[in-house]
Design goal:
- InterPro entries: AAA+_ATPase (IPR003593), ABC_AA/LPS_Transport (IPR051120), ABC_transp_permease (IPR001851), ABC_transporter-like_ATP-bd (IPR003439), BCA_ABC_TP_C (IPR032823), LivM-like (IPR043428), P-loop_NTPase (IPR027417).
- GO terms for molecular function: ATP binding.
- The chain crosses the membrane at residues 21-38, 44-61, 68-88, 94-116, 171-199, 220-240, 255-282, 294-312.
- It is a multi-pass membrane protein.
- This is Branched-chain amino acid ABC transporter ATP-binding protein/permease.
- The protein is an alpha/beta fold.
- Among the domains are: 36-248, no CATH class; 350-436 and 500-606, P-loop containing nucleotide triphosphate hydrolases (Rossmann fold, 3-Layer(aba) Sandwich), CATH 3.40.50.300.
- The strands form 4 sheets. Strands 10-11-12-7-13-14 form a 6-stranded mixed beta sheet, with helices on both faces. The protein has a 4-stranded antiparallel beta sheet with strand order 6-5-8-9, covered by helices on one side. A two-stranded antiparallel sheet has the order 1-4.
- Helix 5 runs antiparallel to helix 6 and helix 9 (168-190) packs antiparallel against helix 12 (215-238).
- Residues 1-9 and 597-607 have low confidence and may be disordered.
- Bound molecules: adenosine-5'-triphosphate.
- Residues 359, 362, 364, 382, 384-390 line the site of adenosine-5'-triphosphate.
Length: 607
């Protein structure tokens, strides 16, 4: 009996019902706040709700997308001013109309600042968003007849619902409902294919492009979405006291929101809310020390960052890993699920003509010709520095050719962006494997399917059947590739914890899970055990059998000579030989240039 209880205790993991129940309980307590708490407490809760919404927006951008942006307080202010102006001028006090107007203005401001800010550099967004906050008083002062100028906009009537102006308690309840609706949206968003791909964005933009996703577009989508909760907060705050002043949207608020995210825990769903609650409560309790507010928030920010780098909620989740929400639907046991197809939907040949690439005075590629056929493994070998990686980079768009063309089937690839090339059916691995933090092996492989998914944002957050079917298909494909490479047993371990050789296998699995028409592998066997190398050879043969065009750059001659159908040999950027493995292995030019200058004994060289 006690053994049974022990098992139950050690394996219990909170399912969706337990998580949902906890969230519903928190919602109920917050919603019935006016019945449960004093008026002053409800006001504190209202302010925490509003600041929590802004902090949730900041966390989506800073925590989940990994981009520091300070503009959310401006979006919050812009929505508040628009709400105030529309209400004062009598255009509308209707809740839904004001929410629509507030969101539209905030998203427009995010679009106008996000496009240049995200296009330029990492710091450009910080600067443009910082500039926005700085701009607020000047903007307000430009139209004093509408905004009330620096004195503030006063006499704003209450928001109405069904024609009835909302009492303070009801306004608070509406804010709580909006907060929970946003939380449900954000939870569905971050625990989905979007969350997995954001982990890659935070980690390495090159990897993101390699799976066909444009970092710029992904960041812009996040920035626009992150403006929405800030706008909800702005609409709610505008009519609470019937007053809007630019001072409420200055640097004190920026620091408060930033501190709330850091203290509560970046990249946690509920952390920013907890941080906002603590800081707003502390602020209300120390009103007499108002002059020191900024100093206080700053101190909180520094202390939290040093003592609790993962924040309160982040630290708690670290200690209770079973509460970590999984990203992926289970694919089922191997015996139960149908074998996933790994080959491409449309096989295509690779043709490289006259490829030339120069780095300063160094001619890395000098007019190279190469073809790789579907259903075959083509190897590209050559001594160090002969131009093999440059060739793979040129095909996959990570390097731009000076001259020449690269076609896959009938599609010209040269000159296109790497993410677009990946979407055209080119999967690749890199010499140095790089795996994102925070994802399991299975999840890290499944990011391969992001660019090709058909379920959009709405299907994803509403968990519609189309999304469910796609997630199952992704999970099945990931599981199949992992089994092929002998990683099935570690599928649920953290990808970052794998040893180097297995990280390389993971990267191969991810590229294969894209079902690319052309698979480019850059020294995939380096660091693998003989057993793992054999499995890799087996997988490559299976892929070729299913119609994939495999281009393999490799120094491991067992893998090359044992599996390749055709071998191309590069030396100093020029193709010096090509043909079946046994012909290339006996080519005297290859033996002297590549395989070992003075010896011509083939057996010795191959050994
Ligand atoms: N980004 C770059 N900037 C300058 N030179 C480069 C760059 N990338 C490659 N090169 C040079 O181009 C030549 C070809 O390099 P490349 O990495 O393609 O060779 P490789 O055959 O892949 O070598 P290895 O087997 O060591 O990986 C080398 O002389 C290298 O120094």
């Amino acid at each position: 009996m006690s053994a049974l209880r022990m098992t139950a205790r050690t394996t219990w993991r909170p399912g969706p019902a337990a998580r949902g129940g906890l969230l519903a309980a928190c919602f109920a307590v917050a919603f019935f706040g006016p019945e449960l708490f004093s008026e002053a407490t409800v006001r504190t809760l209202m302010m925490a709700t509003v600041m929590g919404l802004v902090a949730l927006g900041l966390n989506l951008m800073m925590g989940y997308a990994g981009q520091l942006a300070l503009g959310h307080v401006f979006f919050y202010g812009a929505a508040a001013y628009v709400t105030g102006i529309l209400a004062v001028e009598g255009t509308s006090t209707n809740l839904f109309a004001l929410l629509a107007a507030g969101i539209a203005v905030a998203v427009l401001a995010a679009l106008v600042t996000g496009i240049p800010g995200l296009r330029l550099s990492r710091w450009a967004l910080v600067i443009t968003s910082f500039f926005l906050v700085e701009l607020m008083p000047s903007l307000v002062d430009l139209w004093p007849e509408k905004t009330g100028g620096l004195a503030g906009l006063v006499g704003i009537p209450r928001i109405s619902l069904g024609g009835t102006p909302l009492e303070t308690a009801d306004l608070y309840r509406v804010a709580v409902v909006l907060l929970f609706l946003w939380l449900l949206f954000q939870r569905a968003f971050v625990y989905s294919a979007y969350g997995r791909i954001l982990a890659v964005l935070r980690h390495d933009e090159v990897q993101l492009q390699a799976v066909g996703v444009s970092p710029y577009r992904l960041k812009l989508v996040c920035y626009l979405l992150s403006a929405v909760p800030a706008a909800l907060a702005g609409v709610m705050i505008a009519t609470l006291d019937g007053l809007v002043t630019y001072e409420a949207f200055g640097f004190d608020t920026v620091i408060l929101v930033l501190a709330a995210v850091i203290l509560g825990g970046q990249r946690t769903l509920y952390g920013p809310l907890l941080g906002a609650l603590i800081l707003v409560y502390a602020q209300q309790e120390t009103l007499s020390l108002q002059n020191y507010t900024l100093l206080g928030y700053g101190a909180f920010l520094v202390l939290a960052a040093i003592l609790l780098p993962r924040g309160l909620v982040g630290t708690a989740i670290e200690r209770l890993p079973r509460w970590r929400t999984p990203y992926l639907i289970d694919a089922g046991e191997r015996g139960e699920r149908a074998a996933a197809a790994l080959g491409p939907e449309q096989p295509a040949a690779l043709t490289v003509c006259g490829a030339a690439k120069r780095f300063g005075g160094n001619q890395a590629l000098g007019g190279v010709e190469l073809t790789a056929e579907p259903g075959a493994i083509t190897a590209l070998i050559g001594p160090n520095g002969s131009g093999k990686t440059t060739m793979l980079n040129s095909v996959s768009g990570f390097a731009r050719l000076d001259e020449g063309s690269v076609t896959l089937g009938t599609t010209e690839l040269a000159g296109s962006a790497s993410a677009k090339i990946a979407r055209s059916g080119v999967g690749r691995t890199f010499q140095t494997p790089s795996v994102p933090a925070g994802l399991t092996v299975r999840e890290a492989v499944s990011v391969a399917a992001f660019a090709g998914r058909r379920a959009g944002l709405i299907s994803t957050v509403l968990r519609l059947p189309r999304w469910r079917a796609e997630e199952r298909a992704i999970a099945a494909r990931a599981a199949d590739v992992l089994d092929e490479l002998g990683l099935g047993a570690v599928a649920d371990e953290q990808a970052l914890d794998l040893p180097l050789g297995r990280k390389r296998l993971l990267e191969i699995a991810r590229a294969v899970a894209m079902r690319p028409a052309l698979l480019l592998l850059d020294e995939p066997a380096s660091g693998l055990s003989p057993d793992e190398t054999e499995r890799l050879g087996h997988l490559l043969r299976r892929l070729a059998g299913e119609g994939t065009t495999v281009l393999l750059v490799e120094h491991n001659m067992d893998l090359v000579l044992g599996n390749a159908d055709t071998v191309f040999v590069l030396a100093s950027g020029r193709m010096i030989a090509s043909g079946p493995p046994e012909q290339v292995a006996n080519d005297p030019g290859v033996l002297s240039v590549y395989l070992g200058a003075e010896t011509t004994d083939e057996d010795e060289v191959i050994a």
